Amino acid sequence: MSRKTVLKYKNYDVHSITSVSPSGKVNANIATWVMQSAMQGKYLTVALYKTDYTIQLVRESMILNVNLLAQDQAKKLIPKLGRKSGLTSNKFVNLPFEVDERGCPFLTEAIGYIQCKCVGSIDSGDHELFVCEVIKQVTLNPDKEVLTNNYLRENGLVRG
Ligand SMILES: Cc1cc2nc3c(=O)[nH]c(=O)nc-3n(C[C@H](O)[C@H](O)[C@H](O)COP(=O)(O)O)c2cc1C
Question: CB of 83 closer than 6 A to ligand 1?
């Protein structure tokens, strides 16, 4: 009997990290590796892939928003934000969003977003972990269902 490796049993919520550079360039990705890392929700830690456009903008500004995605966003946003780079496509065309008081986008159809200021980072192989102070949490669509990696697997939107 073939067995899955232990980490394959884990489920994750699905987010979009929205970012802005000091010169006003904006972007959005898909990220599952996001976790609360202090009591009372004061800090989050976000793993960003080193070769992506998102990490370039975050390194420059050290600010981001974590958007907790809803199930009804999956079909449209996984291919649009998670399989293309903002370096080569404008992801904000036909994407419902607004910007916060810092100019950082947030996705208005998400469950809500967490406004973050990055306070440091550490190497994690092909990713870099950004420790972020939570500035505020804003709930936008309280009745939607949270999108999870298991939902993506069950609906054929990711493999493994
Ligand atoms: C289901 C799923 C989960 C992902 N999780 C992460 C993640 O936790 N961190 C990350 O940096 N990229 C993650 N990615 C990959 C990025 O979303 C993807 O490389 C995206 O195209 C990057 O876009 P950008 O170059 O515009 O930043 C994930 C992609 C998918 C489809």
Answer: yes
Burial class of residue 88, CB neighbours in 10 A (0-12, 13-18, 19+): exposed
52: Cβ below 6 Å to ligand 1? yes
- State the CATH number of the domain containing residue 64: 2.30.110.10
Site to substitute for ligand 1 among 7, 16, 30, 53, most atoms within 8 A of C-beta: 30
Whether the model clears a pTM of 0.70, i.e. scores above it, the answer is yes
- Structure confidence by residue, pLDDT tens digits, 133-152: 999 999 999 999 999 999 99
Specify if 154 maps to a domain: no
* Average pLDDT across the chain, whole number: 97
